[in-house]
Write a structure and sequence with these properties.
Bound molecules: uridine-5'-diphosphate, magnesium ion
Radius of gyration: 25 Å
Number of strands: 8
Number of helices: 11
Helix content: 40-55%
Order of helices and strands: EHEHEHEHEHEHHEHHHEH
Structural class: alpha/beta
Distance between the termini: 22 Å
Length: 317
Amino acid sequence: MEPIFSIIAPIYNEEESLPELYRRVSEVMDRTHEPWELVLINDGSQDKSSEIIRELATRDKRVRPVMFARNFGHQIAVTAGLDYSRGEAVVIIDADLQDPPEVILELIDKWREGYEVVYAVRSEREGETWFKKFTASIFYRLIYRITDVKIPLDTGDFRLLDRKGVKVMNTMREHHRFLRGMSSWVGFRQVGVNYKRGLRFAGETKYPFRKMLKLAVNAITGFSYFPLQLATYIGFLSAGLAIIAIPVVIILRAINPQMFFGQASTLIAVLFLGGVQLISLGILGEYIGRVYDEVKGRPLYVASETPEDFDIETQNQ
Ligand code: UDP
Ligand code: MG
């Protein structure tokens, strides 16, 4: 029977959280009295996650395993989940139980009211460092200001997507992905549901500062030309300043030949402009690199095992 609901959880070294994730998700989903599936994407874990996923999938046919050939990153893992999901409504959730599975029922209620995208808004974050909260808060507000898509503030990937939205998302094969932006871009009727983001069930964050920065850059470059335009703005600004400065300096020199004597001001101006030019070049490079990645047209991920492979393998046993 085709499932009505698909729950997608990306897994990267989550051996301690996995059994609890399965237990809580199945408990919550059974309350809907509808068929459901849990798509677990093993994003190249080095711990026992892979074995645990297999075990869960052998015991319960509703668990659908996707095994990556290596670590491709969280956003790509979720993308694979969207690719392999079959439900009419698809829920993306973190495996560490920071997003309480119980909230899924609230998302489903909104879906039943007719919304195609129901995103969960973190009204509270428990036990995260002030640094994470601070950088996250700046990040969401920056993205909101400079991108063309209005990505709701303080929302993560925890959300429900109707099949209509998933179909559109599955046609968007960009390599540097920012899924929450993509799901806003899709449109349809969207609504938020507040929830309290809890503590990690076990283990520690798989999102070090480096990965967060990468995600932020993907979000900005994926949805805005603003950084590219920055060079133009600064160019106009310094050209304007120069036009004003030229007559001012001429007049001051005419009045008093001692004024603007020396190289310091020249040096500062040259260094400043050199810096601005190099930064602009770097930004340009950032976009060109992304264009290059798209042109290569490589697949987004390599799966060493899909749910279908797993079905065949277990049937033969
Ligand atoms: N994750 C993943 N691949 C990665 C990093 C993370 O699939 O390279 C998964 C991880 O297992 C978890 C989710 O993405 O299910 C969110 O990661 P995490 O909880 O570490 O991020 P945080 O909540 O600290 O931002
Ligand atoms: Mg987490």
